[in-house]
């Protein structure tokens, strides 16, 4: 199958390679000429036979908005655009409406797999009409992991459903990563435990907490015992925030996900104003000692 692919970053570059290895003809566009197959989106459209299918894999927000708008101007009736980036699901309906006015169909695809997707395959959560999803199925089948389709691919519902599912997926991911990280810190704090990395390595098989994330932490601890080479400062992509916001809107309790999001915020504070206030309060009401800056460094 022929596909246009917009965005050849860490994931898009590997997706192009996986699709080509699977026998598809992929024409890629990226602003960086050293990785791009064509010079512009107009050239991309011109290189594809109609009806065309174009997959967008660029950062969410304004970059996706501008890309969708430009595609609406160079594509035509009968074409299909798939947004595989981490767009917020509320942006999908406006994108579908903009493209639909030109007779261009739209599918949103949540994609999980990171840099490992090239060899392991990508977990896919898609939203759109039955006909539009079926049209792109050869692409989805090549990108997803091997095995039964339902074990790596799901047609979640209409436009927006795929990105909603991916948003929740990332919220769950936040909570899982925090739980594994807290477990590591607790193991490392106890002198009885000789090798926390060995514990995480042992959990890789036979335990109820085994997972890919757990195995990746075991790998990270093996590569850098004590994690001395990295800072604890942790960014968030936005999807954890969206998950908590949607949970509030739907009145669904997600304390684990919310706590993991706030833990990332806390990681960015060199000296927490909250904990300074707690220390001051303990001193005020109970006379508990406080460490001065000169004492604590």
TrEMBL record:
**Keyword RNA-binding part of the UniProt annotation:** no
> Which UniProt key words apply to this protein?
Gluconate utilization, Oxidoreductase
Q: Which SUPFAM superfamilies match?
A: 6-phosphogluconate dehydrogenase C-terminal domain-like, NAD(P)-binding Rossmann-fold domains
User: Which domain of life, per UniProt?
Assistant: Bacteria
GO molecular function terms listed in the Swiss-Prot or TrEMBL record: NADP binding; phosphogluconate dehydrogenase (decarboxylating) activity
Q: Name one GO biological process term.
A: pentose-phosphate shunt
Q: What is its EC number?
A: 1.1.1.44
Q: Which PROSITE patterns match?
A: 6PGD
Q: Does the keyword ATP-binding apply?
A: no
> Mind telling me which SMART domains this protein's record contains?
6PGD
- Where does the 6-phosphogluconate dehydrogenase C-terminal domain start and stop, copy by copy? 162-296
Q: Which family does it belong to?
A: Belongs to the 6-phosphogluconate dehydrogenase family.
Give the matching PANTHER family: 6-PHOSPHOGLUCONATE DEHYDROGENASE
User: Under what name is this protein listed?
Assistant: 6-phosphogluconate dehydrogenase, decarboxylating
From what organism does this protein derive? Mycolicibacterium chubuense (strain NBB4) (Mycobacterium chubuense)
């Amino acid at each position: 199958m022929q596909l246009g692919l917009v965005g050849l970053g860490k994931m898009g570059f590997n997706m192009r390679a996986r699709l080509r290895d699977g026998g598809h003809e992929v024409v890629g566009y990226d602003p960086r000429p050293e990785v791009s197959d064509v010079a512009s989106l107009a050239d991309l459209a011109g290189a594809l036979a109609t009806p065309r299918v174009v997959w967008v894999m660029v950062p969410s927000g304004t970059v996706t908005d501008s890309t969708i708008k430009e595609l609406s101007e160079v594509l035509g009736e009968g074409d299909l655009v798939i947004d595989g980036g981490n767009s917020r699901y509320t942006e999908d309906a406006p994108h579908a409406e903009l493209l639909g006015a030109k007779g261009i169909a739209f599918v949103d695809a949540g994609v999980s797999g990171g840099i490992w997707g090239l060899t392991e395959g990508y977990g896919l959560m898609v939203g759109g009409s039955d006909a539009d999803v079926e049209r792109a199925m050869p692409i989805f089948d090549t990108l997803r992991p091997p095995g039964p389709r339902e074990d790596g691919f799901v047609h979640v519902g209409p436009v927006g459903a795929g990105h909603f599912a991916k948003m929740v997926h990332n919220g769950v991911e936040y909570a899982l990563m925090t739980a594994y990280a807290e477990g590591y810190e607790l193991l490392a704090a106890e002198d009885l435990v000789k090798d926390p990395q060995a514990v995480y390595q042992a959990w890789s098989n036979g335990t109820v907490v085994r997972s890919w994330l757990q195995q990746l932490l075991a790998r990270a601890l093996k590569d850098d015992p004590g994690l001395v080479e990295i800072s604890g400062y942790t960014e968030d992509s936005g999807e954890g925030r969206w998950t908590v916001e949607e949970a509030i809107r739907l009145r669904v309790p997600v304390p684990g996900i919310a706590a993991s999001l706030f833990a990332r915020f806390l990681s960015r504070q060199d000296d927490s104003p909250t904990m300074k206030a707690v220390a001051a309060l303990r001193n005020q009401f109970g006379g508990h000692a406080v460490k001065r800056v000169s004492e604590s460094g």
